[in-house]
User: Fold this.
Amino acid sequence: MNRQILMLYTGGTIGMAPSNGGYVPAGDFGRRLTRHLGHRASEMPAFDVLELDRLIDSANLSPTHWPTLAQALVERWDRYDGFVVLHGTDTLSYTAGALAYMLKGCDKPVILTGAQIPLERTRTDALDNLMTALSLAADPGLAEVCVYFGGKLIRGTRARKLKTSELDAFDSPNFPLLGRTGIDFQLRHELLLPPSEPRFQLPDFQPDSVVALTLFPGIPATMVSAALALPSLQGLILHTYGSGNAPDANTGLIEALDQAIRRGVTVVNVSQCLHGLVAQKAYASGAALDRIGVIPGSDLTPEAAFTKLHFLLATGHRGTALREAFQSPLCGDSTALT
Assistant:
């Protein structure tokens, strides 16, 4: 039986067209795609194209867009066997994480993909990415949110864009790939999340409730204080050095973090390094963060940490419940800390 796939076109490079000001999202994607697929369309799973009313250049993405995308899928969940989300590459990893958390326990594949070169260009990578994503979305053995790009299948909560000018733009720094394409597609079934009962939650996200701050040598404590003084702030992702270290000699910075945590702001520690876990107690400079209640982020990617904290706050988690939920692996996003 032929499986039916929904393709959600949100914008991004894959469907862009040139303008006087550079490439911009362009509509009528379904018709354009059919023209480019030609006779190959008969070899693909059957699919419908749903196009957002307002297409997004993903550099303009906001957390307010996440539930809109999820709602488009959830409203049609029972009518399709799988889903492909076409998205700009700049913030695709953030959307993959957000969808994974909102669609917890999904029992069908949701595959995000895009392109480095627009569909209308001669050397486009769009068709290869899109056709394989369609095939994956029709695979009954997949039941999670994934990113497919440049020959790699990546868990949605583990994906990062690491390259700006190569076609294999995405990778999975701290977890094996779920699959690779060559002559055949090699799927790592032993790594896949098992199907479960869908527990969808589509909360309203507050864009200014979470901020991210990257440490650098000589960072002024006043900069950290200013970020923490934002009136609507509930969470801070701190991008630290190495295994989770911060300049503990900068007493003003540590004090600003301490005061914010005392008044209820959640501060999370993720490393600027691509590989490895946060070991917050390994060095004195990291232990200072541990003493004031900063939450170690294990091997979460910055994108997963950002979307996970947003999701937990938006679903009402606070205090100890938030700390425990953040440190527990969710949707295969991290390695459990013991």
